[in-house]
Amino acid sequence: IKAVFKGLKLIDPNNPGDPATWSDNAGWALYNYLTQSWGENVTVSGGGAVADRCAELVGTAPNQEARCRIGLTLSQRQPAEQWRETLRTYAECFVVPDGGGYLLIPDAPAASEYTFDHASGTLAGSLIALGAIRRTGQANLPTVMTVWYTDRSVTPYRDAACDPVKRPGVDTGALPWRPQEIRLNGIFTKSQATRV
Predict the structure, then answer these.
(1) Distance between CA atoms of residues 145 and 115, nearest Å
(2) pLDDT greater than 80 at residue 142
């Protein structure tokens, strides 16, 4: 028996007044989880920007695809924070507490939002001291990453791994081989698993 489930209809964060529809946009999934009664039921801003980034086409024609798609069933009971983190990972964004809700920020290059100037302007003289910036140690960070995903090109679906992504220097021996694997079963294309 073969069955295809469309899943839950979702609200478009750019047009919240429109009727809900089916979508595999990971930004839509996160936005709906946060704003609907079956999820956290809170106010969210920035959902449209995240959804738009997820919908961006990547790759070269004719093999273009949306940047962040998701095919995941929330069938396991977990704390809200864990589902939020899971969906945030698929949507490639940051979830920042904002009053009683959240601000969603795409994890993408962007222009500077504000420049702090200690000598002049509205913050003149307000910085008393700035401590030294410390970097997190990199001694135990993985140098080789493999992402497992759900391969839908075969029936029945199967788990598959993208090609390992290595940090520069691993092949030459300048960096040690420290592998890590992560499972993102809501991803269903090798190209998206490789981009993560």
Answers:
(1) 35
(2) yes
